[in-house]
Structure formats: C-alpha cells, structure tokens
Amino acid sequence: MTERIHLAIDGSIATITNDNPEKHNAFDDDMDLRLFEILEELKAHPEVRAVIWRGEGKSFSSGRDVGSIGNAKTDLSHHELMRRGHRGIQQLWELDAVVIVACKGWVMGGSFQRALLCDLRIASEDAKFRLPETTYGVIPDTGGVAVLYEMCGHGVVTDMVLTGRVLTATEALTHGIVSRVVTADELDSTAREIAEQIAAAPAVTIKMAREVIRHLAVPQIRTSMNDEMIYQTFINRSDDVAEMRAARAEDRPPRYTGS
Fold first, then answer.
1. pLDDT tens track for 170-208
2. Could you report the per-residue pLDDT of 19-60, keeping only the tens digit for each?
3. Domain positions in the chain
C-alpha cells in the first residue's frame, strides 16, 4: 500500500501526513484506501486524544489527482465507489480523538470537503480554498457543502460551488471555515499546540462537548451526503456529461441540453 499518506503516533497525539508533494498532495484511489485504513487504525488507539492532519510540501491537498480519474483499480460501480468513500471518511465521526487540520497552499475539492468534516481547521496565510467540481462536470460529493452552508450561508456556498471561486485564508477566517490564520512557519507548531491543549483536558469532558456539537451537525451532513451520492450517480450517466467528454475529445464547443 502507498506511503504517500502515513500515520505517526506520539503518546496522546497522532499525526496524519499527506505525502505526495510533487502533486500538491492530490489523492488517488490508493491514497484514499490508505486514509480509510488509518482512520480504522486510530479507532484502536484510545490513548490518542488529538489528531493533526497535515501535508508535506506547499499544499495540504489539491483534491483529486485528475490523472487518476477513471483509472481506479477496482470492479466497483461508480455508486459503490461513492458508498465506499462516504463510509470511509465518516469514520472521522467514530473517533474519540479531536481532528485538527493544518491547511496551507491549495485545499481543494474532496480534500477541502474532508477537512470540513473534521473538528478544527487552522490555516497559513497562503492557504487557498476551492471547490472546482462543476468545472469537471460533477458536483461536490463528500459532505462539505452541508458544512459550508451551516458556516457561510446560501450566498457564499452557492458562489463557491457554481463558479469554483478561490477563497483566501482571510475570507475563510471571516466565514468561520478556519478558526485561526497564522504564518506558514507557525502552522505546524500551532496545530501541535492546539493538540496538546486538547490532549491535556479531561477526556470525558472533550468527548461530551464533541457529542453535543456532532448532534447538531452530523444528521444534516449525512442527509446531504446521501443526496450527493444519488445526484452524482445520475450526473455520471447523464447526456450532458457524455457531451462534455465528447466535446473535449473532439476539441469543439459542447452542446448541453440539461439532461
């Protein structure tokens, strides 16, 4: 299995590191599977009280490795792949440990959405957040839209989803997407400081506080993810997506019909 994402445990603090810096930590199918394995492993470590999720190189993650799209090494259908992805990342909600994401450089697409499913996000000043899915003829499908809607409201999430606009770290702080913005040199140390503070608090208090927050947020996110799975499967089989692929292959303008 790939070592482009790995886990290190240091007492009560674990660190997940995206380690594909040449591609700005873009994820392919192997990295997805390893991430889901890591989350499964963490459930077996009750001594871990906080998890830092970070990236090597310039970016946290630029999302999906475009070169890997359509090349998944599996016989699963599109719908089944999505179910596997949803079940894999929803393991975040089964962890007792708080998950802190250190955002820097590009934080895009599915990786941005996965970060939104975590407990805390901090950002370096150079962090840029984007949901580019519609430019590829698909929709965001990892639950992040539901979280953004709760944080930002209708206008911002619609702008990000429909236009693929880039959100700066300062804007992300303004909208509550991240809780702190620090310099690039301070990002890892600040994430560690937060993790140590959480790990030093009474364990049961942290668990119960998180349960209160999860009861507010998770049901709506689950509902949104179920909708995304249905609609993304429909889009994958739609005439418009087939036309988009044909037009790109033939180097001509597409003729969309809305079906």
1. 999 999 999 999 999 999 999 999 999 999 999 999 999
2. 999 999 999 999 999 999 999 999 999 999 999 999 999 999
3. 5-203
- What are the φ and ψ backbone dihedral angles of 54, each rounded to 5 degrees? -140, 175
| Model confidence pLDDT, tens digit, residues 123-168 | 999 999 999 999 999 999 999 999 999 999 999 999 999 999 999 9
pLDDT over 90 at 74, yes or no: no
Strand ranges, E, within 65-218: 98-103, 106-108, 120-124, 128-130, 167-168, 180-182
| Integer Cα distance of 28 and 23 in angstroms | 11
Taking the model in full, what pTM does it have? 0.93
The Cα 221–Cα 223 span in angstroms is: 5
Cβ neighbours for 122, distance < 8 A, ≥ 6 positions apart: 100, 101, 102, 103, 178, 179, 180, 181, 182, 187, 190, 191, 194
The CATH classification number of 5-203 equals 3.90.226.10
Residues 6 or more apart whose CB falls under 8 angstroms from that of 224 comprise: 143, 145, 146
How far, in Å, CA of 32 to CA of 231, rounded? 22
Q: Check if the beta carbon of residue 114 is closer than 8 Å to that of residue 85.
A: no
First-to-last alpha carbon distance for the chain, in angstroms, is 40
90 three-state secondary structure: helix
Q: How many secondary structure helices (H) and strands (E) does the chain include? A: 9, 9
